From TrEMBL:
Keywords: Antibiotic resistance, Cell membrane, Cell shape, Cell wall biogenesis/degradation, Hydrolase, Membrane, Peptidoglycan synthesis, Transmembrane, Transmembrane helix. It is an enzyme of class 3 (hydrolase). Belongs to the UppP family. It is found in: Cell membrane. It catalyses: di-trans,octa-cis-undecaprenyl diphosphate + H2O = di-trans,octa-cis-undecaprenyl phosphate + phosphate + H(+). The lineage of its organism: Bacteria, Bacillati, Bacillota, Bacilli, Bacillales. This is Undecaprenyl-diphosphatase. The gene is uppP. Its main location: membrane. GO terms for biological process: cell wall organization; peptidoglycan biosynthetic process; regulation of cell shape; response to antibiotic.
Length: 273
C-alpha cells in the first residue's frame, strides 16, 4: 500500500510540475486528477508542498537575474545611480507593485480560493484561458525591460489577481497581460515568472499557519518528499520548454489544448459529478 501511495503522489507531483509553468492551470489539473482518478490528497498542505517545489525550480532558472536584482537594488538604496542599477531597481519596484493586487485579494479570499475545487469551474476557466491565449498568440511586442512603465506593471498585476479564480492559469494570465501591454516574448516570460516568486512565497508563508494548526498525517511525509522532488524536476524542464515555445511564438498550442480539455472537463463534470 505504501508503494501505491508513493506512486500516486509522484504522479500528482509530476502533473503539478508540468502544468505549473505552462498556461493551462496546474491547480485545475490537480482538481481534475483528484476527482476523476480518485487521487485525493490532504487538502491545501499538499498543494503548498508541490507549489513550493515549482517555486524552487523558478529560483534555480532565474537565479542570476534574482541575484542581480537584489544586488542592484541594494546599490541603488546606497546611492549608486548607474544606468544598469537604475534599470534593475526599477524592475524590482515594478515586480513589487505588480504583486500587490494578487497579494491583497489572496489574503482576503484565501479560504474561498482554497475551498473552491470544482471541475465544472475548471473547465470553464480553461476555455477562458484558451480564448485569451488565442487572441495574443500572434502578438509580437517590442518592449524590453528598460521600456516598462508603472502602468504596464499594474496591468500585469491585475491580470495575475484575476488568475486567483480557481482553474484560471496564473502564468497564462500574466503572459497574456505582459504581451498585451507590448512586451516582447523574452521580457514577458521573464516578468511573468519573476512575478511568480513573491506570490508563491506569500502563499507558502500563509500556508505555514494552516500546516501548524492542522499538521498532515506523518505517514504521508515520505509521499510528500517524492511529490516535492517530482514537482521540482518537472517544473524546471517545463519552464525550459515554455521558454522555447515563447521564443518561437507558438503559444497557440496551449490555446488549442485548453479548447480540448476545457469542454471535456465540463461534460464529465455534468455527467458524473
Amino acid at each position: 500500500m505504501l508503494i501505491i501511495e508513493i506512486i500516486k503522489y509522484i504522479f500528482l507531483g509530476l502533473l503539478q510540475g508540468i502544468t505549473e509553468p505552462i498556461p493551462v492551470s496546474s491547480s485545475g489539473h490537480l482538481v481534475m486528477a483528484q476527482e476523476f482518478l480518485g487521487l485525493h490528497t490532504d487538502g491545501l498542505t499538499f498543494e503548498i508542498v508541490v507549489n513550493t517545489a515549482s517555486l524552487v525550480a523558478v529560483l534555480i532558472l532565474f537565479r542570476k537575474d534574482i541575484i542581480e536584482l537584489i544586488i542592484d537594488t541594494l546599490k541603488y538604496i546606497k546611492g549608486e545611480r548607474t544606468e544598469t542599477v537604475k534599470k534593475n531597481f526599477q524592475l524590482a519596484m515594478y515586480l513589487v507593485i505588480a504583486t500587490i493586487p494578487a497579494g491583497i485579494l489572496g489574503v482576503i479570499f484565501k479560504d474561498v480560493i482554497g475551498d473552491t475545487k470544482s471541475v465544472l469551474l475548471v473547465g470553464i476557466m480553461l476555455i477562458v484561458t484558451g480564448i485569451a491565449l488565442w487572441f495574443i498568440k500572434n502578438k509580437r511586442g517590442q518592449k524590453l525591460e528598460r521600456d516598462l512603465t508603472l502602468k504596464d506593471a499594474i496591468i500585469v498585476g491585475l491580470f495575475q489577481a484575476v488568475a486567483l479564480i480557481p482553474g484560471l492559469s496564473r502564468s497564462g494570465a500574466t503572459i497574456v497581460g505582459a504581451l498585451g501591454v507590448g512586451m516582447n516574448q523574452k521580457t514577458a516570460f521573464k516578468f511573468s515568472f519573476l512575478l511568480y516568486i513573491p506570490v508563491s512565497l506569500g502563499t507558502a508563508l500563509l500556508g505555514i499557519k494552516d500546516i501548524v494548526e492542522t499538521p498532515p498525517d506523518t505517514s504521508l511525509m515520505i509521499s510528500y518528499v517524492f511529490a516535492f522532488v517530482a514537482s521540482l524536476v518537472a517544473s524546471y524542464f517545463s519552464l525550459k520548454w515554455l521558454q522555447g515555445i515563447m521564443e518561437r511564438g507558438q503559444l497557440g498550442i496551449f490555446s488549442k489544448y485548453c479548447f480540448i480539455v476545457g469542454p471535456i472537463a465540463i461534460i464529465l463534470a455534468l455527467i458524473f459529478l
